[in-house]
Amino acid sequence: MGTQRLWAGLVLLASTLGALTAQASLYWNHGVRGSTPSVCFVGNALTARPARVQQVLDYIHDFERAANIRFNYLGTCPAPIVLSNGDDWHGGDIRVVIPGTSVPFTGMVPGNGCPMFLDGNGVYTGENNGWGSWSNPPDELTQNRACRYNLKLGDDADASGVPWRDHTLHEFGHALGLSHEHARDDVDYGLCTASGYGGGASSGHMTPYDRYSVMHYEFLSCGIHGNYGHAGLSTWDQLGLHILYPEPVRVAEMVGRTVIRTTEPLNLTSAWGARGATLSVVASGFSWKLSGITYSASSGFSTWLGAGTYPLQFSHSDFLGRTYSYSGTVKVLSPADYAKQIVTPVAARTLLL
Ligand SMILES: [Zn+2]
């Protein structure tokens, strides 16, 4: 098993050589997909292994509650279109191969013109002969359209034979643009000094290092189970994905009350920051305005205000060049008005209940 897991990492690395250097929440620096990526299974997976197919679909629902990702499930991957140059063109953005179907799980990736695991002379390197799982990153979708599959998912299972939820999430996490958490250059050497731990990605750190990420490998000697678990996406996995896949109308999310008394300060801050994001990496250009006047250019601010209603504008950018904004109002009331307008109506309604 240990060898197999190591091999998975090697294969993943091999599959991305020649592209950008690999960098959970660790952004891979390999782009993001559209918000409705299509998913399909190659060969006869749906009839040969219907329970496993359904399990994978159930597992990956975790992504849909964390972020603006809605998988477009196609069932069996469609037959390829043959292009004028003879190359295959496979529909389906995330084309999954699982063991025990009509498509061989090891060896050359099928597909006329598929460039994966070929050397400079077009000869298969043998690098896909293992059983380790891997996935292409988002930005290799086009270059590997000729390949029958671009995500290879093994059945790695717990002692009772149930395939690990987090192993499935790990491979789809790669497909959505996350990289190996344990490879970051800011891992916790107080926690672990095992071989293969740390020493890698120096950028893309969307959150602090997260030993609970599904994008983490298992380091049992350090008490880290990594992707060999059933806990699902960690809190910071969810946050990283939420940042990578925003809603189509990008709202600058904030935390704080906007109806306050004159006897308390207004306290507003970025919700990404409040959830633990590393804002120096993922966000920039913060702007907080009240009545058109800039109050802060940082991720949060606190200020005292006199009674009144203030138009609020909050905006920032993210590290992928997207902008976010929110417009609302801040209402500041004297304690007497606050009691009359806010407290009393609520109290009255409580009595009616
Ligand atoms: Zn991996």
Protein architecture, described:
The chain is of the alpha/beta class. The chain has 2 domains: 1-246, Collagenase (Catalytic Domain), CATH 3.40.390; 254-352, Immunoglobulin-like. Helices cover 23% and strands 20% of the residues. It contains 9 helices and 15 strands. The protein has helices spanning 2-16, 45-48, 50-59, 61-66, 165-175, 235-244, 271-274, 279-282, 335-352, and strands at residues 38-41, 72-76, 81-82, 88-89, 94-97, 134-135, 151-152, 254-255, 259-261, 266-270, 283-290, 293-296, 300-303, 308-318, 323-333. Strands 2-1-5-7-6 form a 5-stranded mixed beta sheet. The chain starts with a helix and ends with a helix. It binds zinc ion. Residues 12, 170, 174, 180 line the site of zinc ion.
List keywords for this structure.
353 residues; alpha/beta; Collagenase (Catalytic Domain); Immunoglobulin-like; five-stranded mixed beta sheet; 9 helices; 15 strands; elongated; disordered N terminus
Topology:
Elements (H helix, E strand, L loop, with lengths): L1 H15 L21 E4 L3 H4 L1 H10 L1 H6 L5 E5 L4 E2 L5 E2 L4 E4 L36 E2 L15 E2 L12 H11 L59 H10 L9 E2 L3 E3 L4 E5 H4 L4 H4 E8 L2 E4 L3 E4 L4 E11 L4 E11 L1 H18 L1
Parallel strand pairs: 1-2, 1-5, 5-7, 9-15
Antiparallel strand pairs: 3-4, 6-7, 8-10, 10-13, 11-12, 11-14, 14-15
Bound molecules: zinc ion (ZN).
The site of zinc ion has 4 residues, from helix 5.
What hetero molecules are in the model? zinc ion
The largest β sheet comes out as: 5 strands, mixed
* Level-2 CATH architecture of the largest domain: 3-Layer(aba) Sandwich
How many domains, as an integer?
Answer: 2
Strand tally: 15
Relative strand content: 15-25%
The N- to C-terminal Cα distance equals 60 Å
- Could you report the average pLDDT, rounded to the nearest whole number? 92
Give the C-alpha Rg. 24 Å
Helix content: 10-25%
Unreliable parts: 1-24
Q: What is the number of helical segments per DSSP (H or I, 4+ residues)?
A: 9
- Report the order of strands and helices: HEHHHEEEEEEHHEEEHHEEEEEH
